[in-house]
Amino acid sequence: MTEHLTHDPAIELINVSRRFVSPTGKSLTALRDFNMTVERGEFVAVVGPTGCGKSTTLNLVTGLARPSAGEVRLMGGPVSGIDPRVGFAFQTDALFPWKNVIDNVMAGPLFRGKRRDVAEASAKRWLARVGLSKFINHYPHQLSGGMRKRVSLAQTFINEPEILLMDEPFSALDVQTRTVMHEELLKLWAERKASVVFVTHDLEEAVALADKVYVLTAGPATVKSVYKIDLPRPRVVSEIRYEQQFIDYCKTIWDDLRQEVETSYRRASEAA
Amino acid sequence: MANVTMETTGTVFRPGTSDAEIEATALKSIKRRKQTVLFWQIAILVATLGLWELSSTMLWIDPFFYASPSAIAERLYDWALNGTTEGSLWYNLWVTMQEALIGFFAGSITGVFVGVGLGRNRFLSDIFSVYIKAINSIPRVVLAPIFIMIMGLGLPSKVALAFIMVFFVVFANAFQGVREADRNMIANARILGASNWQVTRNVIVPSAMSWIFASLHVSFGFAIIGAIVGEFVGARFGIGQLISIAKGTFDAAGMFAAIILVMIFTLVAEAIMTVIENRLAKWRPQQVDVQ
Q1: Which of residues 192-231 of B touch A (CB under 8 A)?
Q2: Which chain A residue lies closest to B185 (C-alpha atoms)?
Q3: How far apart are CA B167 and CA B162, in angstroms?
């Protein structure tokens, strides 16, 4: 029995649907019969047309939202409320602007009842890890976009999440900074071997980082296809994009994704 | 970064000009600008007072109704030295200050608590919003006679009026501030492990703070209005009472003198509040002038 438990996948979404009902009573389906499995230590990327319900998937895993039908399981157990094993990286800046860098990073451990000196020591370690030791007393507005992202990563990783959810975390960064952040993320992930779900609409980013790429249909989202990415690790993100194998993956998946993107555009223009 | 770049001078430097020189020029031009602004501020004050004084002595305006700066200064000097007909000037000022300050602090603290509380609880706010709207639509000063009838001519009735005037402004802003708090930031705090109380303390209140401070600036003026209107309607001491008596004796200089006292007092309080606000808001981006 215990043997069986340790082999439960990190995340399972089983036939999940999610409906939103507006205050006027109109209902909108964001997810329909959605199935996804993330093994422990696996890096999964989710791509799909804009507004198809990618972020909704993540919210279901955090426990911030509940499925209308179906089941979400973490490490073999059902999700009830916000799970302490989950870490989340946001698309927009979610740092607390009134706290300086170290207080931002310390927030997680302090919320979880750690002692102040313990939290501070570990925050300093994580800030050193992301190369920001010199900036611990700065406020977020005094940092560049890339530095703020690093603070966010430290803030998320300090809680040592076993499950890491990332919602287009690097989409606001410029291309060079983004590549640097990719390397940074893969390094942190290789050390900790957390299970990652990485939502993005950048296909190359997905292929460069992930073990598995899920392609979603235009909303209501359901899984269209799953691709296993067999590129050797450790990967060097800045160079991998020139390899033939990488290009082939991108082409295959893009052919698949393009239809959905076109459907999504057509609907948007029909609605307008 | 979000710094606003502003050209302070149109100076074009020759290539090879050192940073120190550029900085020195920029500093000088900033200083010169400050001095020019100050000069015009003083010039306008002097011109206005001078014109007033002149019109009054030349009888272009009736000094009986409009007084004159010199008469007002004389009256203030006389009050400060010999006291008013209602006892010492300082005592009267103290009475009004006390009413306004107690009303201000009680009103703003209650306003913040109720605003944050209702802002965090949608169910309660849905229930109470209709009552708050109803009470809010009463012009507050009409409550003055009722408060005086119930609480008498002393301190409590004025404090109550100042309180009710301050409360609604601060409450409305605190409530709005809570509602405007960034949803991502709240989600982030909750996933990082924050309880409801920790979210309120670490995210909601700090982000509502700029709204609350904006309301405190306005509502201090309201506290003064509450105290003085209360004194108009019925009081034994206070600046409002002095104005009321001056009106009864057609003493224009006395009225203006009292108004100036209130003005100075409010400006001082405003300055103190700005200092406190800047202390608390050190995390906000500063506007930097860039040469």
Answers
A1: 192-195, 198, 202-203, 206-207, 209
A2: A94
A3: 8
pLDDT in tens, A59-92: 899 988 889 999 999 998 898 888 899 999 998 8
Question: B37-86 pLDDT, tens per residue?
Answer: 999 999 999 999 999 999 999 999 998 889 999 999 999 999 988 888 88
The DSSP H or E segment spanning B249 is none
Residue B81 touches partner A, C-beta closer than 8 Å:
no
Pairing of strands A163-167, A77-78: unpaired
Find the closest chain A residue to B285 by CA distance.
Answer: A141
Q: Are B178 and B116 in contact (CB under 8 A)?
A: yes
Tokens 């500063």 sit at which residue?
Answer: B286
pTM: 0.80
Strand partners, A86: A163
The residue of chain B with its CA nearest to that of A108 is: B192
Tell which residue, A47, A87, A72, A92, has the closest CA to residue A195.
A87
For β-strands A195-199 and A43-47, DSSP reports them as parallel
**C-alpha to C-alpha distance for A216 and A49, rounded to whole angstroms:** 8
| Best residue in A82, A85, A93, A98 for a mutation probing chain B (most B CBs within 10 Å) | A98
DSSP codes of every residue in B157-187? HHHHHHHHHHHHHHHHHHHHHHHHS-HHHHH
Q: Which residues of A touch B (CB under 8 A)?
A: 62, 64, 82, 84, 86-88, 90, 92-100, 107-108, 111-112, 139, 141-144, 155-156, 159
Backbone angles phi, psi at A227, to 5 degrees: -115, 135
H/E run at residue A195: strand A195-199
Query: Cβ neighbours of residue A9 under 8 Å, at least 6 residues apart?
Result: A37, A38, A39, A40, A76
Q: How far apart are CA B205 and CA B112, in angstroms?
A: 9
pLDDT surpassing 90 at residue A184: no
> Taking the C-alpha atoms of A181, A184, A190 and A193 in order, what is their torsion angle to the nearest 10 degrees?
-60
